[in-house]
Prior knowledge:
With about 325 residues, the protein is an alpha/beta fold. It is built from 13 helices and ten strands. Helix 1 runs antiparallel to helix 3, helix 4 (about 100-115) runs parallel beside helix 5 and helix 7 packs parallel to helix 9 (about 210-225).
Amino acid sequence: MKKIDWHAHYISPGYNDYLDECFKGKGDGISTPTFSVDAYLKLMRALDIEFGVLSISSPHISAALDEDILPLTEEVNQYGAQIVAEHPDKLGFLATLPLPFVEESIETIDHALDKHNALGFTLPTNARGIYLGEPVIDDVLAKLNARHAIVAIHPNEPKPSVAVMKDVILPPLMEFIFDTTRTIIYMSQQNVFSKYPHIQWIVPHGGAVLPIIAQRVKIGNETFNHSNNTDDLEQVMKHLHFDLAGIVIPYQLANLLPWADENKIIYGSDSPYTPHKAVHVLSEQLEENDIVSSSTLEAILYQNGKELLNKYKK
Length: 314
């Protein structure tokens, strides 16, 4: 079935070097996968992906030395822009910001949109332990709101990390899911979604465990009178986009549907961090699932992503 892929990754030479230097080639405990444009285009042909949106994955570049973050930001974004320029009908990219640096991130927003033709941005759940929603980066979100930007959130290892567990349970397997969940809930408590209504947020990996914990948070806030002047999490989830990168069949998609607007659920391959053999298997699971109707499935795989793309593609 035809698809638009909103969650795929590229690895620039500079980002690859960063992973080698800062993480010995094992960012988040996982060996850096091999990336090539040709390999991704081959995957697109095999899975009938009409258009793919690429971004840098985790670890976020904020783990670099202060003096290295700005040059790395520009290298990453320039490389993404180059890929898109070579394949404009097939590929787009989400630019990276040099968080937690505020003024530099604000400048990068205009540069990425106006010079690099980025479709939007990828933001980590946290950069050096500073989470989305913390007042220190409000000006960055205000700028993204002013530009009506698409922002795809990507999990980053929580800070401080759960050191006692990270060597036993790889962060992408558990902590990524929890960090995504805690970030969205924290953002709702900080009124991020009502303060910056023009940002189009994409939440990864089927909404993590938000569908399971959202009701608990909502009812708990009401019970303990903690919900005054905070965004209503139930309403927030109806306005968010959710990508289906990763393993979402049979549990996550079924749990997400009652909370989300099904017209805002979109496809994601997570290539190449999800090996292409596994991407094929996960794609087959989605196409053969009996959780949604065929018309809803077609919308999730293609139409919803296409509509979002048409709004912002230059």
